[in-house]
Design brief:
The protein is α+β, with helices and mostly antiparallel strands. Helix content is 33%, strand content 19%. The chain is built from seven helices and eight strands. Helix 3 packs across helix 6 and helix 3 packs parallel to helix 7.
C-alpha cells in the first residue's frame, strides 16, 4: 500500500501518481465561488491540499491544527496556496473547524480527491483496531480527543485522508496517504516538498 510518494522516488512510483490533467479536471465546491475546477488551485502558484474526512472529526481537527500551526507560515512564505478538502459540508462543523484551519476550505462532493489518494478508488481504513483499546489507532484518537473538541458522527469516518503538495501547473510533487487512521504526513517531508515546488516556475 502506498503511504508516501515523492518525485524523488523513481519512475516506478511516479508512474502511479496522477498527472496534471487528472487533478485539474476534478470539480470542487467553494462557499464563495460555487463549483470550480481543481486546476484553478494551482494555475498560478503551487498548492498544499490537506485532505480530511470530516470537519467534525477529532483526528481531522487535531491533524489540521498541527499542520497549520507547525507549517503554514513557512508554506505561505514559499508561496503555496493552502487548502483543506473535506468530504462533507455541515455549516456548524465547518464554522467550528475554522478554529483549527483558518485557511481555505473546499468540498469534494464526488470524493474524487479521495479516490486519487486511493489509486483511483475510494480507500477506507480498516476499523478493526478501533475495537482494540491498546491499538495505535485508539491511542491516536485518545490523544486527539484530549487536545481538541469534535464528534464521532457522520459519514466518511473511515475514508483515508492525506496530504498533497502540487506544483504550479498541477504536477503532483508529494502525496501522503494514511495507512492507518490518525497517522499524518511528516511535517519535515511536507516542507521539503514545498521547497521543491517553490522553485518550479
Amino acid at each position: 500500500t502506498l503511504v508516501t510518494a515523492t518525485r524523488g522516488m523513481g519512475q516506478d512510483v511516479l508512474a502511479g501518481l496522477p498527472g496534471p490533467e487528472v487533478l485539474g479536471a476534478i470539480r470542487l465546491w467553494s462557499e464563495e465561488e460555487g463549483i470550480l475546477a481543481a486546476s484553478k488551485l494551482f494555475s498560478t502558484q503551487p498548492a498544499l491540499l490537506m485532505v480530511i474526512r470530516r470537519p467534525g472529526c477529532h483526528l481531522c481537527r487535531y491533524q489540521s491544527r498541527e499542520l497549520w500551526q507547525g507549517c503554514s507560515a513557512k508554506l505561505k512564505q514559499l508561496g503555496l496556496r493552502l487548502v483543506a478538502v473535506v468530504s462533507v459540508w455541515d455549516e456548524k462543523e465547518i464554522t467550528s473547524f475554522r478554529r483549527f484551519w483558518p485557511g481555505e476550505i473546499l468540498l469534494d462532493k464526488d470524493l474524487d480527491i479521495f479516490k486519487v489518494l486511493g489509486g483511483g478508488k475510494l480507500s477506507r481504513a480498516p476499523i478493526g483496531k478501533l475495537f482494540n483499546p491498546f491499538s495505535s489507532v485508539v491511542r491516536q484518537i485518545a490523544k486527539a480527543m484530549t487536545s481538541v473538541d469534535g464528534n464521532t458522527v457522520g459519514v466518511g469516518a473511515s475514508y483515508k485522508g492525506g496530504v498533497m503538495v502540487v506544483q504550479k501547473g498541477g504536477q503532483l510533487e508529494f502525496m501522503h496517504v494514511e495507512k492507518e487512521l490518525g497517522f499524518p504526513a511528516s511535517h519535515k517531508d511536507i516542507l521539503e516538498a514545498a521547497q521543491k515546488v517553490a522553485c518550479v516556475v
